[in-house]
Design a protein that fits this description.
The chain is of the alpha/beta class and about 325 residues long. It contains 11 helices and 10 strands. The chain is globular and about 50 Å long.
């Protein structure tokens, strides 16, 4: 795999600083039941990195200490972590909103027979990967048979009330372009998704998140192999909008890797660009800031580590873990 960090570090991206932390995004590990072409964490069935129990125990403590209102669980497939349900129970007991970054097909994996019911019973917000509403495009990007399983999973979640008015059960879908292009207008694409999925499969959902593919990991390596890396970066730069800087997710979210180390965003995590060391309790300032440091230190006002891939979050309509940025 081609490393893209050397191509991204020399940057003129504007300096940014943090606002109040309100979202803790935890990557529970890289184990996944799928291997997707666009995956920026290079997850798959053969990955063994998983968060250990001492780190898991810190999550609820930090949520309470920092008065964080949202816990965003990701992976890999976060549901494959043995403590996934314990983490959910602890967060919900604190009144914290919990988001599960779900690939949908996990609902049919051995041992996950009651996963959909568990998510519904705990009012977990689902953000589900669905890169297209056609079988050809989904299977091309995520593997043969993934589309049919995803449709069955969505129908199962709908039957429990997800996506339906008055239930409080939210399910949002995620679109990624298949190649080196910007996502289309999110609201227009959402209308297409709602029409096609309902007309063909009776499926309903709340919102569609259109995410820009980041030039890192699996997707970035593919760009390098096809000699498309430089043109793609130019596309991102050409569509940069300064107004998007006010809404990028790194201002109020911190990303935590499976070892407990802190990053300004999930993309920096995958590039191994940790947040600055000011908050570390290690006086040598050589130790990477860690989840345990949030028990005693705040991130408000701290500088954000940027590189050229940050243009991916600020190009066009903008992109974050919640889709296009607000106007």
């Amino acid at each position: 795999m081609h490393a893209t960090l050397p191509l991204l570090q020399d940057t003129d991206f504007p300096a940014l600083s943090r606002d109040k932390l309100n979202t803790l995004q935890i990557n529970l590990g890289y184990l996944c039941n799928q291997t997707c072409q666009h995956c920026h964490v290079d997850a798959g069935p053969n990955r063994t990195e998983m968060m250990e129990e001492p780190m898991v125990d810190l999550i609820a403590q930090v949520l309470k200490q920092r008065d964080i209102d949202t816990l965003d669980l990701t992976g890999g497939a976060p549901e494959m972590h043995t403590s996934f349900r314990r983490i959910v129970h602890q967060a919900r007991a604190l009144g914290v909103r919990v988001i599960d970054r779900c690939n949908l097909t996990i609902l049919f994996e051995p041992g996950q027979d009651d996963l959909a019911e568990f998510l519904a019973a705990n009012q977990i917000e689902i953000v589900a990967s669905m890169p297209c509403y056609t079988v050809e495009n989904v299977d091309k990007q995520r593997g043969k048979g993934v589309f049919d399983k995803s449709i069955a999973a969505l129908q199962k979640l709908n039957a429990l009330g997800y996506g339906k008015p008055g239930t409080g059960l939210i399910i949002n879908l995620v679109y990624n372009p298949q190649g080196p292009s910007l996502p289309p207008n999110q609201s227009k694409l959402q209308a297409d998704y709602k029409r096609e999925l309902f007309n063909h499969f009776g499926i309903v959902f709340n919102e569609l998140f259109a995410l820009t593919n980041m030039p890192i990991k699996r997707f970035g390596s593919m760009l390098v192999s096809k000699k498309s890396f430089a043109p793609y970066m130019q596309l991102l730069r050409d569509n940069y909008l300064e107004s998007n800087l006010d809404h990028v997710m790194c201002r109020n979210t911190v990303s935590v890797d499976w070892q407990g180390f802190l990053y300004d965003c999930d993309f920096n995590q995958q590039l191994d660009l940790p947040i600055p060391t000011e908050i570390s309790n290690d006086v040598s300032s050589l130790k990477r800031p860690h989840l345990r440091d949030l028990l005693t230190k705040d991130l408000n006002g701290q500088s954000i580590r940027v590189a050229d891939h940050c243009y991916g979050c600020t190009a066009g309509q903008g992109s974050s873990c919640g889709g296009a940025l607000p106007d």
